[in-house]
Design a protein that fits this description.
globular; Ubiquitin-like (UB roll); alpha/beta; Elongation Factor Tu (Ef-tu), domain 3; 15 helices; 24% strand; Rossmann fold; 20 strands
Length: 490
């Protein structure tokens, strides 16, 4: 029997993105029924689907291959108690089906007896035919060898391993895997829920559970009021999902929704990405994480008895990992912070103050256009954050990167781009070299205009002033609408 699945769950089962499924629906290749898709229609579109090919089974295989390492166990499989509760829920559903079938059988038997009783009346031959028809129909139902609905079985497995969460009022969807908290799963999926410490102390991540069941798995010091508990509120940072959920939360939709924060982080590591570019890895305290949108920047400062220096840099990491913040810092003798960093003044565990975030160089999530990123040198840093966030958010449309460099080591993370291109059907990139920023802008704009229907794209430009100005002028002259262009000067 065909089963209806949400688009998100169907995509998860088949190992596709939600955007891929939406494209099939939009092109009428895959029928949709009030936002749901049928397993029969999915199997017609993907007849090669097998249980062992599903994402759930791939994850089981991975667990086996990695010998049940602790990190994998926590990410993939729920703990024993949660697993038992989910299996119990599946058993209850199965019992309900069995009871329904039993009642159906009793009804048919009663109807058969009634027909036998009526057979002595006139038109007995018609009644006998009807009785024979019911006999055959009942035998067909009880003795059916109809092939197993592969996707339905896969969905049952997925329900044990991961809980599906629908967010109100936005309609966003994500999955809670293993025993991870609902907050961690939401951030991993690219959402921007309201939260503060992420550690059960501030209460900013409290949300109303409209339907479904959650369970507290981490300690929390924040006391919910009796009224909040009655209304179904829970802290997302300390609870996991036992069953599929519908929750009501506030989400940031623009930079204005993100408050400025002042946090003291510690240096986790300093490592070269190229001869003239350093990777600075900062880690915030567990009780005070940085909430930001992909593409934003912060001010870094070091204050001490012998040194006092600060600078503003874009964040090069995804908001889904809010504790570990990465920065690509270029050697610049006029930048005191960069000069100190390259001289070895910052070492592991040194304190660095963060203030921010700032800037509106963020994704326009309401747009369904393909996206083109046009960057120069370390302009790749905020774009790395944007690409990772776009992938996590499962945004529709293709991602194209045009990366221009003014130095031989300017494409310092080209291997990362190559890995994205290999792993993602929606991502592609091209690298260019030029003598200076203005020439790089001319070359990059020409490449974009040669490859793209620019009026159907959202373009994000980031780099030195001359580069950004050159690209903006070229794209505007080619007819790119102003509301489809975002730029950031480094």
């Amino acid at each position: 029997m065909a089963q209806l699945l949400t688009v998100s769950r169907a995509a998860h089962l088949l190992g596709l993105t939600r955007a891929d499924m939406q494209k099939h629906i939009a092109s009428s290749v895959l029928p949709s029924h009030d936002g749901m898709v049928s397993t029969d229609d999915l199997l017609k579109l993907y007849p090669e689907v097998r249980l062992e090919d599903s994402g759930a089974f791939e994850r089981i295989t991975k667990i086996r291959e990695e010998a049940f390492g602790k990190r994998i166990r926590e990410r993939i499989l729920p703990n024993q108690e949660i697993l038992a509760q989910r299996l119990a829920a599946q058993s209850e559903e199965l019992d309900d089906v069995r009871k329904h079938l039993a009642h159906y059988h009793d009804l048919i038997e009663a109807l058969r007896e009634r027909i036998d009783h009526m057979a002595h009346a006139s038109a007995s031959e018609q009644l006998a035919d009807l009785g024979e028809f019911l006999d055959q129909g009942l035998a067909g139902v009880l003795g059916s060898e109809e092939p197993t609905d592969t996707l339905a079985v896969m969905d049952d497995m997925l329900r044990v391993m991961a809980a599906h969460v629908t967010v109100k009022p936005s309609g966003h969807e994500f999955f809670v895997e293993g025993s991870e908290t609902v907050l961690k799963a939401a951030l991993r999926a690219g959402l921007a829920p309201a939260y503060g410490c992420g550690n059960g102390n501030c209460g900013l991540c409290k949300a109303r559970i409209i339907s479904g069941e959650v369970k507290q798995t981490l300690h929390s010091d924040y006391p919910l009021s009796a009224n909040e508990r009655t209304q179904g509120y829970a802290l997302l940072c300390s609870h996991t999902a036992v069953s599929d959920l519908v929750i009501e939360i506030l989400e940031a939709s623009s930079p204005d929704d993100i408050p400025e924060q002042d946090i003291v982080a510690k240096v986790r590591s300093v490592a070269p990405l190229a001869d003239n570019i350093m990777l600075l890895h900062l880690q915030t305290p567990r009780t005070n994480r940085l909430r930001f949108l992909a593409g934003q920047r912060v001010t870094l400062s070091v204050t001490g008895s012998t040194a006092n220096f600060r600078a503003e840099y874009p964040i090069a990491s995804c908001p889904c990992d809010d504790r570990n913040l990465l920065f690509h810092i270029r050697r610049d003798e006029s930048d005191e912070f960069a000069r100190r960093l390259f001289s070895g003044a910052l070492k592991a565990n040194d304190p660095v103050s963060l203030f921010g975030p700032f800037g509106d160089f963020v994704l326009q999530k309401e747009s369904t256009n393909d996206v083109v990123f046009v960057v120069c040198d370390t302009g790749f840093a905020p774009v790395k954050s944007l690409v990772e966030h776009a992938v996590a958010s499962d945004l529709p449309g293709a991602l194209r990167l045009v990366w221009a460099a003014t130095e031989s080591s300017g494409h310092y993370l080209e291997n990362q781009c190559r890995a994205w291109a290999d792993a993602l059907d929606t991502f592609s990139f091209v690298t260019l070299s030029a003598a200076d920023a203005a020439a790089a802008g001319t070359a990059a704009a020409a490449r974009v205009l040669a490859d793209e229907d620019i009026r159907q794209r959202d373009v994000y430009v980031v780099g030195p002033p001359d580069f950004v100005a050159t690209v903006e002028l070229s794209l505007a002259a080619a007819g790119l609408p102003a509301n489809q262009l975002r730029s950031e000067v480094l």
